[in-house]
Amino acid sequence: MSILIKNLNKVYPNGNRALKDINLEIPAGMFGLLGPNGAGKSTLMRILVALLEPSSGEVSVFGYNLLKKRKEVRRILGYLPQDFRFFAGYRTHEFLDYAARLSGMTGARKRKQAVDAMLENVGLFDARERYANKLSGGMKRRLGIAQALIHNPKVIVVDEPTSGLDPEERIKFRNLLSEVSGNDAIIILSTHIVGDISSTCKRMALMNSGEISFVGAPEEMLRRAEGKVWRIRVSGDELTEIGNRYPVISTIPSGMSWDVQVVADEVEGYDAEPCPPNLEHAYVYYMENNLNLWTED
Ligand code: ADP
């Protein structure tokens, strides 16, 4: 059971080509969609949750054709958008009950049970009488997760999950999401923060300018950046030139000189020492080189 995306294109009415012939298979488990702002992630997410029509292409979600079976797909789908807002005047439990009704849960008693269990799961039971729009940032995020999961969806789409959260809350958020969503669900996390991907996602795709430039395990992306990260010791005078020639990842003062880390296939004219890459380096390498999986292999 998976999501299959074939030759998907989106051109906005103003002519912006946000998605260019996307082909992607998303299996069960946590899947990270990584890319800079403007890459097309939200556009893809909004198409996947049937809020936006593609210009062309096909999407099948657990065997349902998304364009023909919108209702069925919506029933098995939970969505946490980027700018999730709560209506003023709703208490936390009332809001969740409202979300449950919207997701097609009709029986009041069953709904109350589900709401209480979910509040417990996301650690908001004690806050159930508080007004939803008055909760702290982290609590609002947890309520956001709760509303996306209340009807036990098979596909969970989370757009930029961590904006507005501090690092500790970000880790908690990812763990919570993987804990409460079960084993056989597909969870898609879209983010521009590399660290959100590395610790939780078994598979990922890299997106840039409406195209997918890598699909696979984060470790595989890392492997492809091996031998491409260099440490160079330079004087203050040389810093600008290095910055002009190579993408610089870090600059650390070291005595009278500087230790500079750059990403490049090779470094010429400097005494460069290779360093092991991390996922952030690999991300920069892919972005700089605009590597394309489909033409490379
Ligand atoms: P991301 O989520 O990765 O930041 P988006 O999907 O929001 O990327 O945007 C992809 C591209 O589509 C950008 O160039 C953006 O300006 C453009 N875009 C997004 N929404 C619209 C819209 N409603 N109308 C026109 N262009 C849009």
Average pLDDT number: 88
Structural class: alpha/beta
Order of helices and strands: EEEHEEHEHHHEHEHEEHEHEEEHH
Unreliable sequence segments = 293-297
Number of domains: 2
Quaternary: single chain
CATH topology of the largest domain: Rossmann fold
Report the count of strand segments. 14
Helix content: 25-40%
Strand content: 25-35%
Shape: globular
Protein architecture, described:
With about 300 residues, this protein is of the alpha/beta class. The protein folds into 2 domains: about 210 residues, Rossmann fold, CATH 3.40.50; about 50 residues, no CATH class. It is about 35% helix and about 30% strand. The chain contains 11 helices and 14 strands. Helix 8 crosses helix 10. The longest helix is centred in the middle third of the chain and has 14 residues. The C terminus is likely disordered.
Would you spell out the secondary-structure blueprint of this structure?
Blueprint: E1 3-11, E2 17-26, E3 29-34, H1 41-48, E4 56-61, E5 64-65, H2 70-75, E6 77-80, H3 92-102, H4 108-121, H5 137-149, E7 155-159, H6 167-180, E8 186-191, H7 194-198, E9 203-208, E10 211-216, H8 218-224, E11 229-234, H9 239-245, E12 248-254, E13 257-263, E14 272-274, H10 279-289, H11 293-296
Parallel strand pairs: 3-8, 3-9, 6-7, 7-8
Antiparallel strand pairs: 1-2, 1-4, 4-5, 9-10, 11-13, 11-14, 12-13
Bound molecules: adenosine-5'-diphosphate (ADP).
